[in-house]
Amino acid sequence: MQTTFPSLADIQAAHDRIQPFIHRTPVLTSSAINEIAGCKIFFKCENFQKVGAFKARGAANAVMKLTDLQKAKGVATHSSGNHAAALARAAKVAGIPAYIVMPSNAPEIKKKAVKGYGGEIIECEPNLKARETTLDEVVKKTGATFIPPYDFMDVIEGQATCALELIEDQENLDIIIAPVGGGGLLGGTALTAHYLNPNIEVIAAEPQGADDAFQSFHAGKIIPQSGPNTIADGLLTSLGVLNFELIQEYVSDILLASDPQIIEAMRLIYERMKIVIEPSCAVPLAALLANQDRFRGKKVGIILSGGNVDLAKLPF
Question: InterPro entries this protein is in (predicted)?
């Protein structure tokens, strides 16, 4: 059964809806990196976004689309990362409660962010089953609406606004590369590119140590993530069902990068562009540099997904 995905008008409406909640992030270039890469790269800097990641878009859109009755009871999710902070912030701006289930081993910096935005943290054991059962209890008790991190239409619609801005601000792109974890950003990007310019090739970039999207893409069915091991901690989740449908339809390829390649690309962006990015954010550049012939002479948009890195634990 074919799912009905957001239309271009839906994505444009989402963009208008979330304007008060987000930054229109800049598109930066680096002649030094272009020279190394052998192509022209346009970096869409979501590391400068509210909460330091593209996740602010999807969370804001999902919260703004709730009914007044739903808003009164608040929102809930389980997340150890950027979605937790993004939802807590969107809820704070909307003046509603946010209940965030977080594993006990979630980074302190992420817990601090959620608390800073007024989210109520409910801790659980660090496994998916515990996260889901704890969330169920919270939703039963509070009546809050569950906002999933990526496999949710309103979230995908919000993430799609990132590529909308990129394509508006940088015409004539040949290729867009986005990282893939759960696939909300990639799915939204592929959908927007399809609507605005079907000639743009959309490629995903994934760590070798967490390559479930790569495996699923080539198998033609979802192969769940098992035992991921990579420095790109934002890309450890299994691919979402809705997003897999979008990827099958509109993404032309998924390229892999090793951890040493990811670290090298991360370092390159720090040194040449003087901006802070997290490891997951460096995966698209790492994949491009590992496959340079494929991109030679092209105009390539890269979505820099976020900048929430623990500066005490930089890998270089």
Answer: Ser/Thr_deHydtase_PyrdxlP-BS (IPR000634), TrpB-like_PALP (IPR001926), TrpB-like_PALP_sf (IPR036052)
